[in-house]
C-alpha cells in the first residue's frame, strides 16, 4: 500500500480529500509485535483519529486553524501481523515515498520500534539530521531477551548508525544502568525527568538543522496518559508536553518529520490518552508543518 492509495477508514479531523496538494501526510503504523509488557498499541492510530472529532480546529496557543494546513490522512500501513522485520521494511519504504515528494511525514504508532525504519529513511535524505526524542524510557538497549528488534532499542540504533552526537533525549526516567552509562559515554544528550526546560536550552544549538521529533506518549505521567503499554510513574504533565511542542514550533529549526507512538487505548477506559494524543497531533500540524 502506498500513501496515495484509497483509504476508506476514519481520518484525522479536517484531513484533505486528496494527497496531491498536501504538505503533510498522516499515516498509522499498527504494530506491537515486540512489546515487553502490555500489547495494544496497534490500536492507537485509529483511536487517535476517532478522538480528534472532539477537537476544536483552532489552536489558541498558536493562533492558527487547521484549515490553514494542508494535510492528508493516508490511513494505516497494512503491516503483516507478527512479522517485525517485514513490517519495518514496509514502514521504511512507505516513508521514503512520502519524503520523495517533499511532504512532511507524521506517523502514529504503534510501538516505538516503528520509529527505527523512519529514521533510516529520513537520514537518507537528511544526513545532518538531529533527532529529538521525548520519552520516559532511554530505548538504548542493544537487545531485549536476545531480540535485537525490540521497542527498547530504536534510539541505540540511531546512535550507532548515525552518530550519538545527533541524538537529544528528554524526559527519560527509566532504563537499565547500562543505558544511562552509555548515554554518558557516547556523546548523546540526555535530560532526565524534565522536557520543556532542557529543551529550551538545547534548541538554539540546533538552529538551522533539520530535526526529526519522536514522542512516546509514556513521557506523560500515567495520571495524564494511562493508556500505554509501559507506563512509568513520575512523568510530565500534558501541559508541559504542549509547551515542548510549542518551543519546537517557535525555534529556528526545520522539523522534517515526526511521530507519536505507544498509545494503547485498551488500558484507558476514560479515553484521556487518545484525547490528549489527538491534541498533540493538532499542535504538531499547526506548529511544525511549513509550506
UniProtKB/TrEMBL annotation:
<keyword id="KW-0378">Hydrolase</keyword>
<dbReference type="InterPro" id="IPR006035">
    <property type="entry name" value="Ureohydrolase"/>
</dbReference>
<dbReference type="InterPro" id="IPR020855">
    <property type="entry name" value="Ureohydrolase_Mn_BS"/>
</dbReference>
<feature type="binding site">
    <location>
        <position position="139"/>
    </location>
    <ligand>
        <name>Mn(2+)</name>
    </ligand>
</feature>
<dbReference type="GO" id="GO:0033389">
    <property type="term" value="P:putrescine biosynthetic process from arginine, via agmatine"/>
</dbReference>
<keyword id="KW-0464">Manganese</keyword>
<dbReference type="Pfam" id="PF00491">
    <property type="entry name" value="Arginase"/>
</dbReference>
<dbReference type="InterPro" id="IPR023696">
    <property type="entry name" value="Ureohydrolase_dom_sf"/>
</dbReference>
<feature type="binding site">
    <location>
        <position position="137"/>
    </location>
    <ligand>
        <name>Mn(2+)</name>
    </ligand>
</feature>
<keyword id="KW-0745">Spermidine biosynthesis</keyword>
<keyword id="KW-0620">Polyamine biosynthesis</keyword>
<dbReference type="GO" id="GO:0008295">
    <property type="term" value="P:spermidine biosynthetic process"/>
</dbReference>
<dbReference type="GO" id="GO:0046872">
    <property type="term" value="F:metal ion binding"/>
</dbReference>
<comment type="function">
    <text>Catalyzes the formation of putrescine from agmatine.</text>
</comment>
<feature type="binding site">
    <location>
        <position position="216"/>
    </location>
    <ligand>
        <name>Mn(2+)</name>
    </ligand>
</feature>
<protein>
    <recommendedName>
        <fullName>Agmatinase</fullName>
        <ecNumber>3.5.3.11</ecNumber>
    </recommendedName>
</protein>
<keyword id="KW-0661">Putrescine biosynthesis</keyword>
<comment type="similarity">
    <text>Belongs to the arginase family. Agmatinase subfamily.</text>
</comment>
<feature type="binding site">
    <location>
        <position position="218"/>
    </location>
    <ligand>
        <name>Mn(2+)</name>
    </ligand>
</feature>
<dbReference type="InterPro" id="IPR005925">
    <property type="entry name" value="Agmatinase-rel"/>
</dbReference>
<comment type="pathway">
    <text>Amine and polyamine biosynthesis; putrescine biosynthesis via agmatine pathway; putrescine from agmatine: step 1/1.</text>
</comment>
<dbReference type="GO" id="GO:0008783">
    <property type="term" value="F:agmatinase activity"/>
</dbReference>
<keyword id="KW-0479">Metal-binding</keyword>
<feature type="binding site">
    <location>
        <position position="135"/>
    </location>
    <ligand>
        <name>Mn(2+)</name>
    </ligand>
</feature>
<feature type="binding site">
    <location>
        <position position="112"/>
    </location>
    <ligand>
        <name>Mn(2+)</name>
    </ligand>
</feature>
Amino acid at each position: 500500500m502506498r500513501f496515495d492509495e484509497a483509504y476508506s477508514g476514519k481520518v484525522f479531523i479536517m484531513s484533505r480529500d486528496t494527497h496531491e496538494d498536501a504538505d503533510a501526510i498522516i499515516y498509522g503504523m499498527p504494530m506491537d509485535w515486540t512489546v515487553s509488557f502490555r500489547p495494544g498499541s496497534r490500536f492507537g492510530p485509529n483511536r487517535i483519529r476517532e478522538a480528534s472529532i472532539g477537537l476544536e480546529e483552532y489552536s489558541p496557543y498558536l493562533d492558527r486553524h487547521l484549515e490553514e494546513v494542508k494535510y492528508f490522512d493516508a490511513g494505516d500501513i497494512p503491516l503483516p501481523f507478527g512479522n517485525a522485520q517485514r513490517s519495518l521494511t514496509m514502514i521504511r519504504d512507505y516513508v521514503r515515498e512520502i519524503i520523495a515528494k517533499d511532504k512532511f511525514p507524521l506517523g502514529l504508532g504503534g510501538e516505538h520500534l516503528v520509529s527505527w525504519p523512519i529514521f533510516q529513511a529520513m537520514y537518507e535524505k537528511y544526513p545532518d539530521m538531529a533527532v529529538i526524542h521525548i520519552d520516559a524510557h532511554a530505548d538504548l538497549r542493544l537487545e531485549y531477551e536476545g531480540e535485537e528488534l525490540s521497542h527498547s532499542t530504536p534510539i541505540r540504533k540511531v546512535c550507532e548508525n548515525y552518530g550519538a552526537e545527533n541524538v537529544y533525549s528528554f524526559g527519560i526516567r527509566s532504563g537499565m544502568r547500562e543505558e544511562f552509562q552509555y548515554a554518558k559515554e557516547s556523546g548523546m544528550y540526555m535530560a532526565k525527568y524534565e522536557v520543556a526546560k532542557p529543551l529550551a536550552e538545547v534548541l538554539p544549538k540546533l538552529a538551522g538543522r533539520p530535526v526529526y521529533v519522536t514522542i512516546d506518549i509514556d513521557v506523560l505521567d500515567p495520571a495524564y496518559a494511562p493508556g500505554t503499554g509501559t507506563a512509568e510513574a513520575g512523568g510530565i504533565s500534558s501541559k508541559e508536553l504542549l509547551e515542548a511542542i510549542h518551543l519546537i514550533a517557535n525555534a529556528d529549526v526545520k522539523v522534517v518529520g515526526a511521530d507519536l507512538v505507544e498509545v494503547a487505548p485498551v488500558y484507558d477506559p476514560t479515553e484521556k490518552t487518545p484525547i490528549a494524543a489527538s491534541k498533540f497531533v493538532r499542535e504538531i500540524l499547526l506548529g511544525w508543518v511549513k509550506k
